[in-house]
Design goal:
binds magnesium ion; 9 helices; alpha+beta; 8-stranded mixed beta sheet; globular; metal-binding; binds 2,5-anhydro-1,6-di-O-phosphono-D-mannitol; 5-stranded mixed beta sheet
Amino acid sequence: QENTLASPVGTTLDRYIMRKQAEFPFATGELSQLLRDMALAAKIVNREINRAGLMDITGNYGAQNVQGEQQQKLDVVANIRFIRALKNGGEACAILSEEDDEIIHTGNDQGRYVVAMDPLDGSSNIDVNVSIGTIFSIYRRVSPIGTKATKEDFLQGGRKQVGAGYILYGSSTMLVYSTGHGVACFTYEHSLGEFFLSHDGVKIPEQGTTFSCNEGNWYDYPEWVRSYLTQCKERRYSGRYIGSLVADYHRNLFKGGIYLYPPTAKNTNGKLRLLYEGYPLAFLIEQAGGKALAGTEAVLDIAPVDYHQRAPLFIGSSDMVDDLVACMVAEA
Ligand code: AHM
Ligand code: MG
């Protein structure tokens, strides 16, 4: 089915969040505020990304700019911006970031939520003006309010997410999120500085004809992944791989398709990180009617053991994921 333009036209992210919150009279509004904090940081990061080309002219990471200040890489800048927004916001008591080994305590011990994020994914694409993204995942803490967050707050498992989303810095900047009641997509209007609802109740087409993976790893893929990819080619499906997870995922979400980061002999868990890449994107895809597997298991059912653990990812249109599973079963 087609994802049509949402109505009413002209709904800002803030208004949408407010309207949604009104549907849940017992909600405290903190999750809503947290989403607004993420959106604010996204606007700032978006601005920094737009200037990235100019940064190259004025000096790279490690170099000093004309003011004599140390310039920082964009992924470091993004990390700082999101952390700062969440600290200022007050709803998140701790943050797990791809950029930091350990969790970051925000100082808001009264906060009810924790956030796991990849502040700027696809960082190898920054230098060449290719789309990049931010991915985030939200949990309600399990540790007592008023104390410091613990590892258990982050290792609850994908099904315990209360919200997840991403920001795509592409030809348009978009924020896509879900709090478990469908997927909404907002497009940033630069001149107004606002995110506007562009698609509500986003559903991924059940059937897709696009596969996205790094085929350079072909000889390291399991045999069943190769049979599946061969089948895609026999059916004359399209191969599309940007190498920016959020961008590949976003295209597949709207047009149908599958994204694969399989295990290899060397990296038996693939490359992508479970807590801030696999879980949030799997949460969104299930909300959009698609599927996400890490092999035989649903991504959301994998038990987390560590902050930065990796997991294979097969995610997208349900028919394509089913065909992949058929190849796996046939080989077993
Ligand atoms: P990163 O978190 O270091 O940026 O790595 C994640 C990225 C994804 O955006 C992308 O899909 C994948 O790595 C590409 O990996 P590869 O170059 O192995 O195909
Ligand atoms: Mg990443």
